[in-house]
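Quick check before the chapter quiz. The format below is the same one you will see on the exam, so make sure you can read both the input and the output lines.
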Amino acid sequence: MTEDRHAHETTSHAVAEKTKGIRKGQRWDVGYNKLVISVGCYVQTFGTKGVKEHAYFLKDIGDARRIRKRILELFEMGSLPTTSREMKKKLLRFAVVGGGPTGMEFAAELSDLVHMDLRKIYPDLVGTVEIIVFDVAPRVLSMFDKSLGDYAMKIYKREGINIKTSHHVEELRPGSPRGAQGQNFREDNEPESCYTITTKEEGDIGIGMCVWSTGNMMNPLVQKTTSKTHQLPPSSLKLIPSESPTPDENCTWTIDRNEKTGALLVDSKFRLQLTQSLSSQSNSDNLSTPGACLPNVFALGDNASLRNHVLPATAQTANQQARWLAKHLNSDTRSLDDCPGFNFKDMGVMTYLGDAKALVQAPGGQKGLGRWFKGLRGRAAWLVWRGAYLGLSVSWRNRVLIPIYWFVNWAFGRDITRF
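Here is the expected output.
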């Protein structure tokens, strides 16, 4: 059976059953000398109705397995002789929300999977497949130069990927689109296994699945931490500037955060920034008490933001931050106070377009190499894209195995068994 056993249940009942028997683990205190906060972010849903319950995300291995399982289920349901032509169109219509590199790469990889592997098993269904990308911006891949973006649009059009820009998603719900009377439309003997995505511009659209990739939302741990005041001993603080008078022991502090993103504010050495709370300042003789930092508590990655500089929320940023901090924390010769601050090195931007083609934009934009060389596109960019990710693998074992898997997939096709 390919039909979800939770398909005919209400959302609350399905969640209750899936979480039945889950118990919270025990908690305990752990002492530390240095603490690094790198909990990452959640997917930003903008409060869109039904997205948290019914959309698929691209954050971890569990998400990838759920997406894989759902794609194969949809093709299985579409191949049933009892499934009508109209329902097949709904089940094999894939919606991707978000026109950044992550969403566009998923659309490209999905197109490759359909046209290179699934067409061998479901040849009658490939012509029914439709991939739609929704984005609120007027153009996708806006971080790329216009010439590279125009080339990408040509490739997507050739691959049959339908891109709908300036579209606003309002709701995602299970079931077919509503009929004229406002009720869910469903033919007899058809499985209620599709979803309906509602946009402001086009109304209800029946789809098989929705993959949501629209940016980051701050982790609840960070939100809870920054919403509280903390009483800290003066010996654990580093005042800014260092000549400032020592605050009272009863002084309370709040953790600084970026007003726009909610991320933890850090200095150039990733130390957590603090501000004296208003209640403490009112009880202090010195109302101009400066801020402070925690010299042994650091934050980096998507959940951190430099006070005076905005860095792109990409993997290369987090990788460079982690390497810089690890190098200086492991150094026995120099104190962190004596080290120069972190300096981000822009390595450019890459994205996969499908059919062994990619985009690679030169680093620096108009101020760097990009003044003379916009970047690569096509097969050459694809080779650079693959080589870059292979070089960033965490071990030599992976650097050997990954090319072997690439060759096996090229020679024999992807493994599309369900597990």
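If your answer matched, good. Residues 91 and 208 are 4 Å apart (CA to CA).
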